[in-house]
Amino acid sequence: MNEQHSTTRMHESGMRELVAAGLLEVGTGCRISPSAIFAPQDEQGTMRPIRVGDRVVIGAGAVLCGGVEVGEGARIEEQAVAGKPELGYAVGRTYSGARARTRIGANVILRSGSVIYAGTEIDTNTAVGHHTVVRSFSRLGGDCLLGHFLVIERECRIGDRVRCSPHSHLTSATVIADDVFLGAGIRTVNDKHLIWRDPDREPDLVPPRFEAGAKVGSGSTVLSGVTIGERALVGAGSVVTRDIPAGATAYGVPARVRPANAETT
């Protein structure tokens, strides 16, 4: 017997069982690899249905966990994971491995190796790059382009038409408004005191904020509680320690507001 045909039949049989149990819905015109994995059960033993819209493409080795809803025309490439539950200790609490509703909007692309944690929502026409990690309960707007090897921590809020270049880190609960452009290798900080597992103190986490149309050059670091104002421009390699006003140009270590026509020294 041809191994590929046998694998395909086993895959289709497993899918039929999930459909019959009400744990999987698949729309019309979908292309699903025989090695794609549907995993409705979480670490607590709770079963959550998986819903796949029309014309969805799911690549080899991709994993869809319970609670995932995939909009029509979406593409989930090889080895991507959608709906992964949080399990273990992080930021003052222990996660139990419970899954939650995870929404992948219409025409979203999850590139190979990306990992989308449970509770995340991604709006239409957004692309998530290769090996990018989006942690639990983040919200990503529409028409965004998120590069490869990004880390987007828990409960981040990203608006529409945002560009995040590769190898950047967005700390927990960072807010990025519409039309923001972040260069490569951006680092954000939400903890002024670097507290982790201190039994006597809870971390006081204040994430940075990027207002609409702000642009931050590659290699910059934005510290806790800083706001980059609307349409402000931060030069490459800056360390931003205080708020940058709307429309201002700032650069340096630490970053200082400069006249718009000033030359970099």
Structural features, described:
The chain is mainly beta. The strands form five sheets. Strands 2-5-8-13-16-19-22-25-28-31-33-34 form a twelve-stranded mixed β-sheet, with no helix packed on it. Strands 1-4-7-12-15-18-21-24-27-30 form a ten-stranded parallel β-sheet. Strands 3-6-9-14-17-20-23 form a seven-stranded parallel β-sheet, with no helix packed on it. The protein is globular, with a radius of gyration of 21 Å. The N and C termini lie far apart (71 Å). The N terminus is likely disordered.
Pick out the low-confidence regions: 1-7
Rg on CA atoms, Å: 21 Å
- Percent helix: under 10%
Chain-averaged pLDDT: 91
Question: In percent terms, what proportion of residues is strand?
Answer: 25-35%
Number of strands: 34
Biggest sheet: strands side by side, in what order? Answer: 2-5-8-13-16-19-22-25-28-31-33-34
Overall 3D shape: globular
* Terminus-to-terminus distance: 71 Å
Q: Please tally the helical runs, counting DSSP H or I stretches of 4 or more residues.
A: 1
Major beta sheet summary: 12 strands, mixed
Structural class based on helices, strands and sheet pairing: mainly beta
